[in-house]
Each structure stands twice: as C-alpha cells, then as structure tokens.
C-alpha cells in the first residue's frame, strides 16, 4: 500500500501539536482555502508516493517524539493508508493529532461515500483540529490553529457523545 505525500516526514515539529512530533504532510486537498499555509499540497497529482511500510519503519525509529501529526493537504482524502500508520503509532504509545478542513459533523455524515474509512481513521486519532482555514478569522496568537473557527477536539469523547467535544486546555 502506498500514500502520496507532499514532503518527507518532519521529525522534530513543536508547532503541530504538543511536544516533539513527527508530521506527515499528505498530498491532495479539495478545500483550497484562501490563504492556506500549505497551498502546494492541494494538487492530488503533485508530491510523491511512498510505501506505507516505509513510513511505519521510520516512525518505529523515533525516540523522543510524543506523537505523530497528520496534516496536508487533507489527511482524510487518504484515509486507508493513514489508518494503518495510525494503528502502528498507537502500538508505539504515540498520540495522534490530525488537521482537516472537514468538520467533525461532515466526517460523521452517513451519506459521505468515504464514511466507513473516515470513521475508522477517526477512531485511530486522539485529537482532531477541524474546519477550513478562514483567512478573515486568522489569528497567530491561538495555539495549534490557523483561524478562530477551527476547533481542537477530543476525538474519543466526541465519538462517544456523538458531538464535537472541545479540548479546553488548548482553547484561548
């Protein structure tokens, strides 16, 4: 199984979630938000393919990282390969954060043709930063988000309660 990435793994990020993190920048995004921080990740045909097992082997070598972060592009556009990566990260006691332009509510919709894969990916994520970037709501003073409309969600509680549950420790 392969995944299309926008760049090599970033193994020492401190801005894509708490602690030292490894970031996987996926390639491909339908949202194309005005003012996006990563516009080079929008084209589904750009970037390069890599074997999922190669990413997993790299993640297994990590020593000081608290977790991995899925970014992009939009990770939900490549849910199947990311499910496998996330499951392996969890076995290594790494937490998983994901950034998506989709809202929790959009991911949960049953009429979504990708519903099954998206829910499976969601079940393997600890924290979801959801919502499209809105340039008019950009705020560089807020933690781990680009615009004020985006939410930092506790995925496990959100799935149990069937509604978005905001992680209060990251709210400004």
Automatic annotation (TrEMBL):
PROSITE patterns cross-referenced by the UniProt entry: RADICAL_ACTIVATING
Entry cofactors: [4Fe-4S] cluster
EC number of the protein: 1.97.1.-
Broad EC category: oxidoreductase
Cell membrane as UniProt keyword: no
MF term (GO), any: ribonucleoside-diphosphate reductase activity, thioredoxin disulfide as acceptor
Pfam families: Fer4_12
Alphabetic keyword roster: 4Fe-4S, Iron, Iron-sulfur, Metal-binding, Oxidoreductase, S-adenosyl-L-methionine
Catalytic activity, as annotated: glycyl-[protein] + reduced [flavodoxin] + S-adenosyl-L-methionine = glycin-2-yl radical-[protein] + semiquinone [flavodoxin] + 5'-deoxyadenosine + L-methionine + H(+)
UniProt xrefs under InterPro entries: Aldolase_TIM, NrdG, Organic_radical-activating, Radical_activat_CS, rSAM, rSAM_sf
Described purpose of this protein according to its UniProt entry: Activation of anaerobic ribonucleoside-triphosphate reductase under anaerobic conditions by generation of an organic free radical, using S-adenosylmethionine and reduced flavodoxin as cosubstrates to produce 5'-deoxy-adenosine.
Similarity annotation: Belongs to the organic radical-activating enzymes family.
Record-given protein name: Anaerobic ribonucleoside-triphosphate reductase-activating protein
Organism, as annotated: Alkalithermobacter thermoalcaliphilus JW-YL-7 = DSM 7308
């Amino acid at each position: 199984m392969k995944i299309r990435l926008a760049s090599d793994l970033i193994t020492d990020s401190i801005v894509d979630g708490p602690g030292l993190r490894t970031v996987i920048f996926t390639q491909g995004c339908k949202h194309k938000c005005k003012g996006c921080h990563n516009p080079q990740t929008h084209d589904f045909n750009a970037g390069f393919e890599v074997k999922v097992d190669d990413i997993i082997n790299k993640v297994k070598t990590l020593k000081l990282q608290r977790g991995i972060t899925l970014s992009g592009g939009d990770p939900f556009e490549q849910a199947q390969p990311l499910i496998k990566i996330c499951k392996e990260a969890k076995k290594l006691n790494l937490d998983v954060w994901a950034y998506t332009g989709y809202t929790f509510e959009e991911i949960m919709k049953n009429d979504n043709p990708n519903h099954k894969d998206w829910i499976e990916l969601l079940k393997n994520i600890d924290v979801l930063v959801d919502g499209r970037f809105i340039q008019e709501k950009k705020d560089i003073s807020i933690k781990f988000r680009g615009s004020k409309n985006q939410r930092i969600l506790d995925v496990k509680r959100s799935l149990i309660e069937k509604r978005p549950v905001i992680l209060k420790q990251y709210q400004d």
